[in-house]
Amino acid sequence: MLRPPYTKYSRLHIYYLDQRNLPPINDPDLIGIWIEDDTAILFFHQAKEELVRCLCRDTGASIVYQADLDYQDWEAGVQITSFATKTLRVRPIWEPQGNLELLQPGRTEILLDPSVIFGSGFHATTRLCLETLELLLLESGMRINSVLDLGTGTGLLAVAAAKLGVKRVTALDNNPLAVEVAKRNVELNNCADRVEVRQFDLMGELPDMNYDMGYDLVITNLYKGLLIRLFTDSGFWHPGLYMVSGFIPGMEGDLLAALPADRIQMLHRANSEQWRLWLLQYKARGQVA
To answer: Phi, psi at residue 161, to the nearest 5°?
Structure first.
């Protein structure tokens, strides 16, 4: 995350280590530590060869690889700049308010520190989810008071749901850095009274889908393997709406095959660039026509 004296991301100095259990790193240039399986990826604003060398000596870790990248290269060339949907304007925290055309009357602003989280919130699949959230919460006439956001990443969709009027949002992610960044973004947008962010490993178990009378909407902007794992677990399905995204056309066949077809109604399909989105309704057995 951005911490003083830094106000924006420029260069990323990345060190991929073969161990995840590292002591705390107290360095003003540290952006964060991404934990992936049994490895740790360290991100700094400045080169830290000596610090990392000492860390490896003290812990027995080894450097798998290291890189010096422009921040935009880490984001796969996606431009990290303000954008707007019908009712929302999303602005990275280092960008001045600037383009007032994007903040028209009636638009609500979301400030975002995307950090180095995969799926920063500025990608087409996330915008697709934002647009569908607007459709659901502002135009559909459906009553949605609670949302469960699985794989929240930066927390953008959770914050957007709260900004659009949802009273209770639970946002889960397996990665400690994503949880830290999402909590920061919730605080930046004054949503802490409506959004709870927690660390949770969906590959290990399911969250409590009935927490406090269940969720009206479940958001799953995830990768194919994890979507199939959720779809094939009967505990994942409860009467309500499911927004599914994060997949491309070639994956749709396998995903459709994993759905409980006799209980699912496809309410809406959308696409943006190569990404696809489904809005599903799961019905209890007595509700099925």
So the answer is: -60, -45
